[in-house]
Write a structure and sequence with these properties.
Blueprint (H helix, E strand, L loop, with lengths): L16 H47 L5 H13 L3 H9 L6 H4 L1 H28 L32
Helix pairs in contact: 1-2, 1-3, 2-3
Length: about 160
Amino acid sequence: TPRLPDSVQPTMEDGGGRRGRGRESNVVADSGAAPTWALVIVILLWAAAQYGLAVWTLRDLARRDDVAGGSKTAWTLGLLALPVIGPLAYVAAHPVPTPGWLVRLPERANRTRIWLTQAIARAAAEIDRLRRLPPPRWLERRPRWTVPPRAPRDRDVSPPSGRR
């Protein structure tokens, strides 16, 4: 390839040349990559919240009997047209009824408390009954394998107090 004179030849300081341009463009792309991914994550989270709220409120709207037909159509259009504000307005206007299992929860907790109290009373009565029993006979017998006592030896006997 023909070489240009030094006055015209692009230098690395100027950002000229193939290698310089590539390095600079990579630096610019790398510095902007993190905010781009953060923006993508924020957009995905917003979309998940928006569609989750829309599906939840549309399902609730379809199951309700207290909302009339024409009113259901208006609410459906409002829920779809206003991304997050629509479902929040729907929940404010039509509070979600308490589910049946949540209504029955205090009754179930009371039954569980009674059952636990009875179980503890039965366990205490059983412990009291076991304490009143006589000890088992096997504790009264001597063990079969015992080591006979050792006969005293002369060195085990202390010397009389008069002699040293």
